[in-house]
Amino acid sequence: MQAAYNQKLLSGTKFPEIQVQLYNGEMQSLGKPAHGHDWKLVVIYRGQHCPMCTKYLNELESRKASFYKTGVDIIAVSGDSKEQLESHFDDIDIDFPIAYGLSVEQMKTLGLYISDPRSENETDHPFAEPGIYVVNDKGDIQVVDISNNPFVRPDLETLAEGLAFIRDKDYPIRGTHDY
Start and end of every Thioredoxin domain (predicted)? Predict the structure, then answer.
């Protein structure tokens, strides 16, 4: 199998301008904070076919107050269709913005790993593997975590506590050596 080139987003660089459609039909800039917050947590999830994503989104809902308290807004997005997202609401109970229709080109712009479904029973489109981006008040990527499978994701309590520490101590963006 030939290795493919996939450029990852680097910490400390500008988060790309990507518009996504929220479930309510509104368009939103993926990395721009709203609701009185000045940082943004962007959660990319695989889609409604993934039980681990369902669990993660529900856990994020239960921990969202910790992020909001630190000034961090939240959005989640997948490549699912509106109908798939609507079906997913049977299993998720969230009250933060959620978007759908992330295109393969947008997934590539975000430097995500992209998978093809194993069968039509899984889903009907290529989908992004999990990614987490925290965009600071300057529009820079403060924290980035991408995975090639659903089993490796940041613990949300640790992430919330870490962001509180970063903000409180003016902790620098890490991982920027040599670029």
Answer: 9-168
